[in-house]
Amino acid sequence: MNNTDIKQLASLLEKKKKIFVVTHKNPDGDAIGSAIGWGRFLKNMGHEVTVSAPNEFPNFLAWIEGSENIVLYSKEADKVKQSIDQAEVIFCLDFNALQRIDETGDLIAKAKAKKVLIDHHQQPEAFPDITFSDTSACSTSQMVFEIIEALGKKELMDAGAAAALYTGIMTDTGSFKFPCTTAETHRVISELIKAGANNSEIHLAIYDNQSIDRLALVGHCLNTMEVMPQYRMAIIKVNKKDHQTYNIQKGDTEGIVNYPLSVKDIVFSAFFREDKDLVKISFRSKGSFDVNALARKYFNGGGHINAAGGISSDGLEKAIVKLKSVLPEYEKELNKK
Ligand code: 5GP
Ligand code: MN
């Protein structure tokens, strides 16, 4: 953590302020966990805080205390506009390009408030006044804890904030297994448990709480996945009909992209989901294959080396054909041992 940035942040937060905290579209565990954890901490400091996201978060995160107060642009655009207008400080968490928050991004670009970024994705944009960017950090939630600590205000992180941050770290590290999980991650986790995060309950709430429909969807995806041994990769797709058959709810497709990587020789997995007018794509890899680079180059997306996402407006089958057509470019890299 850069000392000058921490000092600047500390002085920004010295007096009571109106604060807007926002995280990315289709928020995941780290997005909601970091935004709520940071928001609660700021409230405990005495600030007036609004936490916002562009659209709905998955049901499996709804148990997080304070998630019911998140203001969604998709439901309450006027309230979001008003909060941004009145804000003196805006915190952008777990994303680093304003395009990732749709219309909220246009409003923030024009806002007079001081802007602070806290994020761990590659290649941050230059819009913030203060940037906390650590691409080696496993999660934004870990960074939030480290910032609270560097501000010397750990006592203002209550059990609810600790549970939210724990959730973010757990989900972004694949339950502490991805290579970004370090001794520092485990130190932070230890602090969060000491501060009241109930680790076992959080695991149950996130992972052992699914519907039968969701489990059937996983079965369908595993039965229909296409494996391409030549590229050591697999493709899974979910079309509009599957949405009906498996009664797909927000968050139900999350994590399915990881299953192919549990196979010995598969190092790259792509998951395509057909939505109303767009196809959402998730990429995962194990080892050195850089899915962020591929997502940026061909699917208007980004993320991390081992986890990235993108979109396509070409339709499901065409998007898959496009990926297949670029695979030869990556054949050597995918077969590197
Ligand atoms: P997921 O596949 O779970 O949606 O996302 C994996 C990672 O890639 C996350 O860190 C997420 O923030 C990032 N990501 C997902 N979709 C996009 C996208 O369309 N653009 C960019 N820049 N990043 C994305
Ligand atoms: Mn994250």
What report would you give on this structure?
The chain has 337 residues and is an alpha/beta fold. It has 2 domains: 3-207, Alpha-Beta Complex (inorganic pyrophosphatase (n-terminal core)); 214-334, Diaminopimelate Epimerase, Chain A, domain 1 (Roll), CATH 3.10.310.30. The chain is built from 12 helices and 12 strands. It has helices at 3-12, 29-45, 77-86, 102-110, 140-150, 159-172, 183-194, 199-207, 212-224, 240-245, 291-298, 316-334, and strands spanning 18-23, 48-53, 71-72, 89-93, 114-119, 130-133, 226-228, 233-238, 268-274, 279-285, 302-303, 307-312. A hairpin with a 3-residue loop joins strand 11 (302-303) and strand 12 (307-312). Helix 2 runs antiparallel to helix 6 and helix 6 (159-172) crosses helix 8. The radius of gyration is 20 Å and the shape is globular.
What is this structure's SSE topology?
Elements: H1 3-12, E1 18-23, H2 29-45, E2 48-53, E3 71-72, H3 77-86, E4 89-93, H4 102-110, E5 114-119, E6 130-133, H5 140-150, H6 159-172, H7 183-194, H8 199-207, H9 212-224, E7 226-228, E8 233-238, H10 240-245, E9 268-274, E10 279-285, H11 291-298, E11 302-303, E12 307-312, H12 316-334
Parallel strand pairs: 1-2, 1-4, 2-3, 4-5, 5-6, 8-9
Antiparallel strand pairs: 7-8, 9-10, 10-12, 11-12
The protein binds guanosine-5'-monophosphate and manganese (II) ion.
Guanosine-5'-monophosphate (5GP) binds next to β11 and β12.
